[in-house]
């Protein structure tokens, strides 16, 4: 009888492992910035790779990238086609960071004011649009899988406050059922390529409980298939709110988060946030407070926070000023809000508890990436959660982005 034995309690540097909470940034403009000769500097003025700065100076572990269907070569759009996304995704993987995708299902920006179908889909009916969502999503996921990259999360649409793919998917025009079909179609394509990847429905105005009650609750009524509720949360985008009102703003956002979780039973992530680059101290405090409140949500239902295009300097791309890089070309104090001094290291604690035949039960004291843990198992295994769902760890596994939560697992030799 073979017994698989393991007893590990090791202290490693912070940057080596994915942790139990997403802290990250959308940096989709980087491809265009680098193409135009922009060099990123740290606070000391040293030229460094942007991923290195975000990861090792600000404890970020996740990068968010947007994908357009057939974009132009306009650098202001970030060159966000599939090929550019795959190249950047490989850089994210090589930096040992997690990847989040935002699929816009448009040739350019999709947001609350516009959800324009790609030109090639212009005359599609609802059934054809549903199929197009599936095919595009699968094409993106397959392109990433071909280079062994599997996102931890994928947004099915971007800021779909009133649905997507207008007019057929415009929820307020009595097309909520179509919107739900499109979300489920994208979800299906994601899961077929990477079952461990979680799907996100993302709305703006995270402070607006009525919006989320109408949109998310209706999607659930129409049986839309998705895993996570995503929010944008920018204080300056709310009427009569300034950078100095960030505390009241955060309180309203998290009151809504509590409400969403209670009703939907789904976890929440703040997929976008930011503040004017001159309000660096207010922004630092806002981010730190968001992180504290997110971590305090019970049952790990608060998944994390991402800053939108922090590496954008003042006025970048025709006037964007909510980045976190100053006029001197260096990061402002804002991103220090992501630094958690109590998280300067990550402990992997795996303690043998009991043997059952050739299987073993282990207790995991922290969240860790399956890919990192695999290095110390030295053999392909399966982890079984209490509900029986298997997490595969092994050289040829496609589920390496799966995160292992606290708890007791059955560790079974494959």
Q: Give unreliable regions as ranges.
A: 1-19, 344-381, 384-404, 406-414
CATH topology of the largest domain: TIM Barrel
CATH superfamily of the largest domain: Glycosidases
Radius of gyration: 21 Å
**Principal-axis shape:** globular
Specify the structural class: alpha/beta
Task: Compute the number of structural domains.
Answer: 2
Which range does the strand content fall in? 15-25%
- On the 0-100 scale, what is the average pLDDT? 84
Q: Measure the end-to-end span.
A: 14 Å
Output the CATH class name of the largest domain: Alpha Beta
Total number of strands:
16
Helix content: 25-40%
Placed side by side, the strands forming the largest sheet appear as: 2-3-4-5-6-7-8-9
Q: Sheet with the most strands?
A: 8 strands, parallel, barrel
Give the SSE order as H and E letters. EEHHEHEHEHEHEHEHEHEEEHEEEE
The appropriate CATH architecture of the largest domain is Alpha-Beta Barrel
Helix count equals: 10
Account of the protein in words:
The chain is 31% helix and 21% strand. It is α/β, with parallel strands linked by helices. It has two domains: 21-343, Glycosidases (TIM Barrel, Alpha-Beta Barrel); 346-413, no CATH class. The strands form three sheets. An eight-stranded parallel beta barrel has the order 2-3-4-5-6-7-8-9, surrounded by four helices. A six-stranded antiparallel beta sheet has the order 1-10-11-16-13-14. Helix 4 links the parallel strand 4 (98-103) and strand 5. Helix 3 runs parallel beside helix 4 and helix 7 (246-264) runs parallel beside helix 8 (280-296). The radius of gyration is 21 Å and the shape is globular. 48% of the residues are buried. The model is unreliable at 1-19, 344-381, 384-404 and 406-414 (pLDDT under 50).
């Amino acid at each position: 009888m073979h017994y698989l034995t393991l007893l590990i309690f090791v202290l490693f540097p912070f940057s080596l492992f994915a942790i139990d909470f997403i802290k990250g940034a959308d940096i989709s403009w980087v491809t265009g910035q680098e193409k135009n000769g922009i060099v990123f500097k740290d606070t000391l003025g040293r030229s460094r790779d942007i991923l290195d700065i975000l990861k090792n100076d600000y404890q970020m572990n996740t990068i968010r990238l947007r994908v357009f269907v057939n974009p132009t070569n306009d650098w202001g759009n970030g060159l966000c086609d599939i090929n550019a996304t795959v190249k950047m995704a490989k850089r994210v993987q090589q930096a040992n960071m997690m990847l989040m995708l935002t699929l816009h299902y448009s040739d350019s920006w999709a947001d609350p004011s516009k959800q324009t179908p790609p030109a090639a889909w212009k005359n599609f009916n609802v059934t054809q649009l549903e199929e197009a969502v599936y095919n595009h999503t699968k094409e993106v996921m397959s392109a990433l899988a071909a280079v062994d990259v599997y996102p931890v999360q994928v947004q099915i649409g971007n800021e779909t406050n009133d649905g997507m793919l207008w007019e057929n998917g415009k929820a307020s025009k009595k097309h909520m059922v179509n919107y739900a079909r499109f979300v489920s179609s994208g979800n299906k394509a994601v899961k077929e390529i990477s079952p461990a990847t979680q799907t996100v429905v993302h709305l703006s105005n995270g402070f607006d409980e009525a919006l989320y009650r109408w949109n998310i609750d209706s999607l659930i009524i129409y049986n839309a298939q998705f895993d996570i509720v995503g929010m944008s949360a920018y204080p300056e985008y709310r009427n009569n709110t300034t950078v100095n009102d960030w505390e009241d703003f955060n309180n309203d956002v998290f009151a809504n988060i509590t409400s969403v979780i209670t009703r939907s039973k789904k976890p929440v992530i703040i997929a976008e946030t930011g503040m004017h680059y001159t309000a660096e101290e207010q922004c630092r405090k806002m981010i730190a407070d968001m992180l504290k409140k997110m971590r305090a949500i019970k049952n790990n239902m608060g998944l994390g926070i991402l800053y939108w295009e922090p590496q954008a300097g003042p006025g970048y791309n025709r006037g964007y000023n909510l980045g976190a890089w100053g006029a001197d070309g260096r990061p402002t104090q804002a991103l220090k809000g992501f630094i958690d001094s109590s998280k300067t290291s990550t402990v992997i604690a795996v303690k043998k508890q009991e043997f059952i035949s050739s299987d073993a039960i282990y207790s995991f004291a922290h969240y860790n990436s399956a890919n990192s843990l695999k290095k110390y198992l030295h053999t392909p295994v399966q982890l079984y959660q209490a509900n029986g769902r298997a997490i595969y760890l092994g050289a040829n596994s496609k589920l390496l982005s799966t995160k292992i939560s606290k708890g007791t697992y059955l560790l079974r030799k494959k």
